[in-house]
Structure formats: structure tokens, C-alpha cells
Design a protein that fits this description.
With 384 residues, this protein is of the alpha/beta class. It folds into 2 domains: 334 residues, Rossmann fold; 35 residues. The strands form 2 sheets. Strands 1-7-8-4-3-2 form a 6-stranded parallel β-sheet, with helices on both faces. 41% of the residues lie in helices and 9% in strands. Helix 1 crosses helix 2.
């Protein structure tokens, strides 16, 4: 069934996916790069689109690699790596329409890329020179949320606002909109996420909850977080859930596209569990070798999201060596842009902390600003 028109009935997608070794997992591209069929979801784009996905995956990983190197060299305070999760982010990000709105955590660098956010904006946040203050209206991509799970409530509230603004279920594909809210497996244990599920279910909000289950909530494995697959929790809140191979960019795109279309048509929320793996550290302050085995990492490296797309393109003779070399050259140029741009970022003024706190400056905050300005001025000329 193609998901380019009417929404797929996600309420029916709870049975085996015809992958005996991985029950309930939607997969359209195997780790070996072989296309497979699924009874409910179809990827209906051509090989040129897949080449575009490959480019996105490679460039997103290069952003992550360069940012990690910058942090190790003392140029960023911290960095939250997405290594291994590129397909979950690019597949879902590319399924969004311009009018849809995304609410990220602090790790959705690939979604930011898909929504047109300059990755230097991401680095500025982790360098500590601004508050990550890109304009959310640019790309309809919200600001990074550090508080675990809080963005799920923001996303649900925004979705309910779209509902009340009458941009759901009109039948106009250029107007009907949906929301996607991202979080990790660890966040599903937070009250905010479950409260968001309650509100979204009761009010039939046009939202897709997108959980990147990377198997580890920092150092806590998934089996110590939930006794049941995470996607099955949706049934208890009154809406469908589906588990997708989070390392399969084609399947993620197809499933997310169907869920978003379902939301735009007024059929309510969906929980997507993208079953993936965090191949790097939780953040650069983390040492994953202290809590997980190297064998586990090696087994997931065989399911690398980039390698399987490359294997498919090579097998189909859809891309040649020049294409892959061109992508690598573009990645090198992007890395240089990030490095030079990061090092050139000016240090902020201490008084900048008083800006963008309220839409209109309050008398109390203005007083604090003036007092702090006087304090800073008292140091002028000390070393003249």
C-alpha cells in the first residue's frame, strides 16, 4: 500500500513484520542493502531520492564527527553525539512537510540538517556563546530542549493549537499540518512524556511521538527501563504505536510519512519507536566502555545506516565512484566550514544573559541589568 495518499491504518500494525528474527519491526532495507516488502508500508520514492538520503546521512555524520573533535580539543563545552542514529533522524526529518513543526531534544542534529538549520547554530549552543537561539520559524524547528522529556508537552500543546486553529483535516495538503516530538528511550520513564501521551490521546492531537530507542538511557539498558516494547505503550493511551528499524532510512521515512499524514487528516497521535543504537557516548562527558560490551557495539556496527544505503546504491548501479567521492569532498568542505566558523565565534558579552528573557523587559530585570553593568564597569582600567 502506498502512503503517498490516504493514511495507513496504523492501528492494524501490531503483528509480526514477516521478519522472523525481528518480530514487529518494520524494515524495507536490510543491513546488506537488499530491498524488502512490508504489507503496510511502502517507500515510493526513486533512487535519486535515496542518493539524496545518502548525502544527508554522510553529511550529518560528518557534522557529528567534527563537533566531537572540537569538543575534545576544548572548543565546545560538551557535545551529544548521534553516531548510529542518522537514519532515524534523516528519515523522519525528510518526511516532514514545510508546515509541520518539530520539537527536538538536544541530539537531533540530523533533523536540524533536514530542516535547513545551519549546523554552526548547533555548535554555538554547545560552545556556550548563545542560547541556541535560532528562529524556530526558520524550518519550523524548535530550540533544543535539555530537560529530559519536557519538549513532549510543548509539542502536544502546539499540536492542540494547530487543531484549534483549524489547520487539521481540511483536505488541503498545503495547509494541513502536524507536529513531531522527539525523545529517547530513557525519556519514556519521565512523567512529562506520559502526561503528553494522556493529553494527546484524550484530545486526539495531531502529533507523532518519535522515540529513538538507542538501547541506553545513559548507562541504563532498555531491559531495565521497560518490560514491554516501548511502542506497545501507545495502546494504553488510546492511539497506535509502531516499531521501525531505526537504522533503515527508507522504513523510517515511510512510517513517519504515514503517521504524519494520519495526524494531518485528524486521526490523532501515533507513537513511533525507532529501534536503533547509540554507537558513541551519551555525551562527550560519558565513557560507554564502563557499562557496555564491545561485542554489542560490533554487532550494531554491522547494521550501520550509511553502509546499507551505499550497498543498495552500488548493487543497483545507481551511483558510481565519482558520486561517493563527491559526497566525501562535500563532507570535507562542511567540516572546514564548521571548524573555521566555530573558532571565529565571538565571545558573548556578560550582559547578554539579560536579553531574550521576556518579550518586554521587566523593571526588575532591567534593574539587575543596570546593577551588573555598573559592576562590570568597575573593573575597567584596572590593568591600564
Amino acid at each position: 500500500m502506498s502512503n503517498s495518499g490516504a493514511a495507513v491504518d496504523l492501528g492494524e500494525v501490531f503483528g509480526p513484520s514477516h521478519r522472523g528474527d525481528e518480530p514487529d519491526l518494520v524494515q524495507l532495507l536490510t543491513p546488506e542493502g537488499e530491498r524488502v516488502e512490508h504489507p503496510e508500508f511502502t517507500f515510493d520514492l526513486d533512487d535519486e531520492a535515496i542518493k539524496g538520503f545518502y548525502r544527508d546521512l554522510v553529511l550529518t555524520r560528518r557534522i557529528d564527527t567534527e563537533a566531537t573533535a572540537l569538543q575534545r580539543q576544548g572548543e565546545l563545552g560538551i557535545w551529544a553525539s548521534l553516531l548510529g542514529q542518522e537514519a532515524a533522524q534523516i528519515g523522519s526529518g525528510r518526511a516532514l512537510k514545510p508546515q509541520d513543526f518539530a520539537f527536538p531534544t538536544y541530539r537531533e542534529h540530523g533533523v536540524a540538517w533536514a530542516r535547513g538549520i545551519d549546523p554552526l547554530r548547533l555548535l554555538a549552543l554547545f560552545r556556550g556563546v548563545d542560547h541556541g537561539g535560532w528562529d524556530p520559524k526558520e524550518g519550523n524547528f524548535g530550540l533544543y530542549t535539555i530537560v529530559i522529556g519536557a519538549q513532549s508537552l510543548h509539542a502536544t500543546g502546539y499540536a492542540m493549537g494547530l487543531q484549534r486553529d483549524g489547520v487539521i483535516g481540511t483536505g488541503d495538503p498545503e495547509r494541513d499540518a502536524a507536529v513531531i516530538g522527539y525523545f529517547g528511550d530513557g525519556a519514556t520513564s519521565q512523567g512529562d512524556v506520559n502526561e503528553a501521551f494522556v493529553w494527546a490521546g484524550v484530545f486526539n492531537a495531531p502529533i507523532v511521538f518519535f522515540c529513538q530507542n538507542n538501547q541506553w538511557a545513559i548507562s541504563v539498558p532498555i531491559e531495565k527501563q521497560s518490560r514491554a516494547p516501548l511502542y506497545q505503550r501507545a495502546a494504553g493511551f488510546g492511539f497506535p504505536g509502531v516499531r521501525v528499524d531505526g537504522n533503515d532510512v527508507l522504513a523510517v521515512y515511510a512510517v513517519t510519512q504515514a503517521a504524519l499524514q494520519r495526524a494531518r487528516e485528524g486521526s490523532g497521535p501515533t507513537l513511533i519507536e525507532a529501534f536503533t543504537y547509540r554507537m558513541g557516548a551519551h555525551t562527550t562527558s560519558d565513557d560507554p566502555t564502563r557499562y557496555r560490551l564491545s561485542d554489542e557495539l560490533e554487532s550494531w556496527q554491522k547494521r550501520d545506516p550509511i553502509s546499507r544505503v551505499k550497498a543498495y546504491l552500488v548493487a543497483q548501479k545507481a551511483a558510481d565512484d565519482d558520486f561517493f567521492a563527491g559526497i566525501e569532498q562535500e563532507a570535507d568542505e562542511l567540516a572546514e566550514h564548521l571548524r573555521s566558523g566555530c573558532l571565529a565565534m565571538p565571545d558573548p558579552s556578560p550582559l547578554d544573559i539579560f536579553g531574550q528573557v521576556f518579550a518586554e523587559q521587566t523593571a526588575e530585570l532591567q534593574l539587575q541589568h543596570d546593577q551588573y553593568a555598573d559592576y562590570l564597569a568597575s573593573f575597567e582600567g584596572e590593568h591600564a
